[in-house]
Structures are given as C-alpha cells and as structure tokens.
Amino acid sequence: xxxxxxxxxxxxxxxxxxxxxxxxxxxxxxxxxxxxxxxxxxxxxxxxxxxxxxxxxxxxxxxxxxxxxxxxxxxxxxxxxxxxxxxxxxxxxxxxxxxxxxxxxxxxxxxxxxxxxxxxxxxxxxxxxxxxxxxxxxxxxxxxxxxxxxxxxxxxxxxxxxxxxxxxxxxxxxxxxxxxxxxxxxxxxxxxxxxxxxxxxxxxxxxxxxxxxxxxxxxxxxxxxxxxxxxxxxxxxxxxxxxxxxxxxxxxxxxxxxxxxxxxxxxxxxxxxxxxxxxxxxxxxxxxxxxxxxxxxxxxxxxxxxxxxxxxxxxxxxxxxxxxxxxxxxxxxxxxxxxxxxxxxxxxxxxxxxxxxxxxxxxxxxxxxxxxxxxxxxxxxxxxxxxxxxxxxxxxxxxxxxxxxxxxxxxxxxxxxxxxxxxxxxxxxxxxxxxxxxxxxxxxxxxx
Length: 448
Hints:
- The structure is a single chain.
- A two-stranded antiparallel ribbon has the order 1-2.
- Helix 2 (38-75) packs parallel to helix 4 (118-133) and helix 9 runs parallel beside helix 13 (352-375).
- The longest helix is centred in the N-terminal third of the chain and has 38 residues, at 38-75.
- The chain is built from 15 helices and 2 strands.
- The chain starts with a helix and ends with a strand.
- The protein is globular and about 60 Å long.
- By secondary structure, it is mainly α.
C-alpha cells in the first residue's frame, strides 16, 4: 500500500469538493436568508453553534469507528471492520434519538445561558428545535460518512452532500421568496428544509453502503453484544470527540463574548467565518484524507511511510491555505458586499482577513497532524493540548483583547491566530517525536 502524493490526492480531492460544496451551499443559504432578515443570519449562526455540540457527541462514535475500521482494513481484518461499522450505526442512532429529544426540551435554557439578544432569540429557538430535534439524521450520516471514507470510498459522500444542499437551497427558496404564491414560511421553513434534506441523504447513503461498499447489517454481530468493539470505539472516539467538544464550548463562550461587543459584531463574525472557511477547507480535507491513509499504513505496520505522508500533507496544506488567503484578502470587500451593504458591519470586518492569514498558514498543522495522531491511536495528547489552548489562549484572549482592551472583533481574531499557532507547533513536536508509533491499536493479524 503506497500512499504517495497521487494516492493522497485521490482520497483528499473528493473530501475537498464535498467540503467546498457544503460551504458554498451554506454561504448561498446565508445570502438567501440575509435577504429575508439580517437578524435571522445572526440567529442561525448562533443556533448552528448549539447544534454543532450535538454533532460533536455523534463524533465520539464516528471518529472512533473510522479509525478502528481503517486500522483493521490496513491489517487485512475485513470481517472485523464490517462488525465495527455495524456497532457504530446502532450506537449513533441511539445517541441521536436521546440527544434530539434533549435539545427540544432544553433549547430555551441554552439560549438564555448564551445571553442571546432578544431580537435574535426567537429565530434561534425555532431553528434549534426543528433542526436539533431531527439531528438523529445527522448522527447516522456522521457514522455512515466516516465508515465510507474508511473504506476509501470518498466520492459518494461528496455526491450526497451536493444533493442534500441542492434540496436545502430549493426548500429555502420556497420558504423565503413566495414562488407560485406560496406564503413566506421564514425561519421555520428554512429549518424544515434542512431537516428534510438530511433525512433523504441518510436514506441514500445507507443504500450505497449496502449495495456498493458491502457493509451489511447482521444481527449475528450483536450476539453476544460486542463489548470489546464498543470499548474500542469509545476508547478512540471519546478523547477525539472531547477535543471537538472543548472547541465547540469555547466557540459558544466566544460568541457570548462577542455579544458584549454588539449585535453587528455577531452578524459580522458569521460573515467573516463563512468566507474564511473557504480558505481552510483544503487543509481540513487533507487532514481527513491523511487520517484515512495513516490509519491504513499504521495498521499495516508502515510507520515511516505514515510519518512522511503526514509531513507531506502539512506542507501542501500550508501552501494552499496561504495562496487562498491572499486571494481572499485582495477581494475581501467584494465578497463581504455579497452579504451586506451595512457600513458598520463592513467596517468591523474589513481588516480581519489580514489577521486571519496568520491563522490560515498554521491551521493545516492542526488539521493534518491532529488527525494523523488520532489515526495512529494517539488520541489523548491532541485532546489535552487543544482543550488547554482553546480555553487558556483563545477564550481568555478573546475577552482580554476584544472586550477589556476594546479591540472588538480585531482582538477576537488575534486571539484565534495565537491559539492556532500554540496548538500547531505543539502537535508538530509530538509527531516528530514518533511517540505515536507505540499507540497503534490494530496490527496485521489482529488487535495490538
């Protein structure tokens, strides 16, 4: 198994296109909703941060199963890989049902704790209840997509993402712009559009896994209950998802801090983040592709090749992010004015892209090396370092620079850049130490 540059790009390119489509469609959604209400944009941005907390929990199973399947596949243990996939589907479905009900019950309390302005809270509540209440679909999609990629099937999730987002945009158009005289449904219609498109995506993805990948649901896999597999998934997934949970909560804290700056700052933050996501997607895609490669290589015992694959990906990601970030800086006002003509919001956002350049150059270190460490089984170290930096650097400096020093969103973005640098350089040092080689969970012939 030779993961040279061509193989890595073969894995990464569909993930990149899928991510690009998701962000592009998300930005189109924001553009559509901004024509309906500027407050609705900020409200959905806040609501999606809450919903992303649910996705993080689903990631406990998805991340754990993806790494376990990848290492078993690399080691040639194909039946065990299929068994892990089955357990992952069932666990994420049960998690999804429980959390979907929980979010409906607790939505008002969560928004109150986040100190959301009154003009945003009504929109945010409606969106959270509908989309969060149907988030068990996201739980299943999370597990299915992770398993598909672990088998090296990265193209089909890309097509699923395209289809889901096209359906979502069509639903938004019906909800907001009164085609054929249909009443304006507003945020409620947008939320239902999102939930329905996700449900359809799950059905199509399930059919693909069964027919094309060959992952079958077998009751025999659960007799007796596979406790060892359950423990392995949780062992891998909990630290990895814990890192994502720490990030999500830190983002909620950051949002609460930005509310102290003002409603325009919240909306501006949503716009800038939507645009900068375009820059970071190649590094993020390389991280996911490299995770697949490293899990296969470490399972097969090819440690030197795994090491070089990760380093190569980091260099590619840093270069790509730098080029994309320069383009965004040059045309920043044109992009911003696609969203809004509000002079105050434009003033708040204009210079943030210069600061974001520094974060984008170092971001692939976090995306690629973090995923590579997890793929090799070294899951606790990235969680500890990232959690400490999210709160000790990012959130703390967001308040000090953004609020206490009066720098506003400029201070918030400086804090983001410092946080990326601290985490990225620390993870690089860990990867170069090769401590991760002793953490591999699965080897040729069985478990380590």
